[in-house]
Amino acid sequence: MDLDPYRAPLRGGRHCILRRIAREDAAAQLELERAIVRARQGIVKHEDELPADAAAYAEQRERAGLMATDGSALCLAAELTGGGLVGEATLLRFKPRMVRHVGILGIGVHPEAQGLGVGRALMDRLLGWARAHRDADGGRVQRVELYVRADNARAIALYRSLGFAHEGTRRDFVRGDGGAFVDDLVMGLLLSDDAPAAGR
After folding, report:
1. What pLDDT score does 193 carry?
2. Residue 89's beta-bridge partner residues?
3. Which of 95, 130, 137, 150 has its CA 20 to 30 A from that of 101?
4. Is residue 130 a contact partner of residue 25, using CB atoms and an 8 Å limit?
5. What is the 8-class DSSP label of residue 48?
6. What is the structure's pLDDT at 196?
7. What is the DSSP string of 95-123?
8. What is the pLDDT of residue 83?
9. Measuring CA to CA, how many Å separate 3 from each of 43, 130, 141, 194, 199?
């Protein structure tokens, strides 16, 4: 699948550019994650748990394998036309051969850009790549899974609309800011060979 920058339509006649993330984006990515964490919705970390600066952020992502270019990971950025980074989506495949067909999906959208369709655009593009990509040995992504807080109704609705199914619940997995526990849902999507490719 071609992953040149793609201009995706959003609500209200706006557009965003979807493209691969580069190491040079680390500062903007860190600011995006800080904004998401400060909003305190659907997240599982605090701001003081984030890397201290862009260099540390980039190093953390590289160690996690998120910047790989061998098909084991894909990281996409969404930029508003004429604006900055407003969203990010990642797919990281397991390394062992027996589970290499499984990818873990993560996504974040800036609080001020939520409701525009940025998350759906990122998901469509990422899942389109997952359906189309083939490894040198013919291997491919056949299962995508994600984890979402049970109180994040907007995200759950988006994932269901894209075909993800609720597969399990990690009870009392997250301790909320007020001390109450929140369940975490495991959702999965199987990518069949004949499924239509999403995204462009």
Report:
1. 60
2. 76, 107
3. 150
4. no
5. G
6. 44
7. SSGGGTTEEEEEEEE-GGGTTTTHHHHHH
8. 78
9. 28, 11, 16, 21, 10
The pair of structure tokens assigned to 57 is 């952020």
pLDDT at res. 18: 97
What number of residues does the chain have? 200
pLDDT of residue 200: 36
58-87 CB burial, b ≥16 within 10 A, e <16: beebeeeebbeeebbbbbbbbbbeeeebbb
Closest CA relative to residue 103, chosen from 119, 92, 114: 92
Contacts 24+ apart (CB under 8 A), 51-56: 54/26, 54/27, 54/30, 55/26
Q: Which residues of the chain have pLDDT under 70?
A: 1-2, 193-200
Q: Which contiguous run of DSSP H or E holds residue 59?
A: helix 54-64
Largest separation between any pair of C-alpha atoms in the chain: 49
CB 20 within 8 A of CB 74: yes
What tokens appear for 159 in the block?
């994932």
Nearest to 171 by CA among 158, 182, 160: 182
* Identity of the amino acid at 160: R
Edge-to-edge strand ranges of the sheet holding 73-80:
6-9, 15-20, 73-80, 85-93, 102-109, 143-149, 181-190, 165-175
